[in-house]
Amino acid sequence: MQKPHPRATALLLSLLFLLIALPLPTAAEATATPTPAFTPNCKSAVLMEASTGKILYAHNPAEAMPPASVTKIMTLLLVMECMDAGTLHWEDTVTASARATSMGGSQIFLKEGEQMTARDLIKSVVIASANDAAVALAEHTYGSEEAFVGRMNQRAAELGMTATHFENTNGLDDTAQNHVTSAGDIAIMSRELIKHTEILEFSSTWMDTIRNGQFGLTNTNRLVRFYRGCNGLKTGSTAKAGFCVSVTAEREGMTLICVIMGAENRDIRNAEAQKLLDWGFATYGLFTAEGGSLDPLRVTGGEADEVGIAYPQFTAVLPKADVKAVEHTVTLPESVKAPVRAGEAVGKITYICKGQPLGEVSITATETVEELGFFELWLRILRGMLCI
After folding, report:
1. Of 106, 129, 204, 246, which is the active-site residue?
2. Could you read off the pLDDT of 6-25 as tens digits, one per residue?
3. Residue-range domains of the chain with CATH
4. For residue 157, which phi and psi values (nearest 5 degrees)?
């Protein structure tokens, strides 16, 4: 048999040494956050998973810049929260003021004194980005646009939107001095707005009408028509802002929010949003563990011997390959001592992926069990002694 060449043997030994010396990847490295193989052609971009709020990708996410009509996401959020509070109703009549009718840009050409339902005005803002309709709604709900804008900034602060300052309801910025927000902040307010599912009904509509069918509305967001799963949300463009959009799309139970700011034109804006959404849907999946109940937990010293227990749903967004690798552990004592209050945490379920904790949910009591009083305790002992 021919002996191996000395150089070949030395090379083989060197490679073997390197393989042994290289550290094995940790669990954290094994589940490292993926990144796309491209940088979006725009000033800033964010991709967020809606149910968890997890940021899947960010490019310059915190820089404050003009948002154009994407501003109306906050306008719509306040209007819908007025609906929740009962201070505005879908069929309420709104009267257009002279100020509302003076808005330029995208509009439905309201006349001073013209009356329209809140439903039609909201539909006009969502679908056609109507500046005049946005002002009319603001004045109707808060008395003046100035008061409404004050609440916009207050709400932004409540949501943790740290790079945002609004000066108007619609994003017109010819005379604005500091009307700005960021891609990250837009994702935050978009996530909050789409909790109102009625908005998605409008924002996923390609064409509609108002004024008894006499005035047509066409969605400014072409992705609603051409991108599979797209159901919203809001476009915007001005000379200062460039071309911006907050796009929402849903596939296989997962909703993504993609924000693009400062693109050079509409086609680039839409193309970059599609690329990021495609990457997000191809790369990530949603793990969901439904909520439920467990066998009752034994109670000592209580008026009842056991208490019902339950746990809520848990959701996490993960790289697709990791979704099926999630495991869980249940931490629960054999018994609890009375008193036990409804909603009180008595244990937890921890979710783990490849050795790394994803999060946990509390196991809580579904009812209250009071502590056994002195008289009841002795009565129970007596019954036990007498076998009754």
Report:
1. 129
2. 554 444 444 344 333 334 33
3. 44-283 (3.40.710.10), 290-375 (2.60.410.10)
4. -65, -40
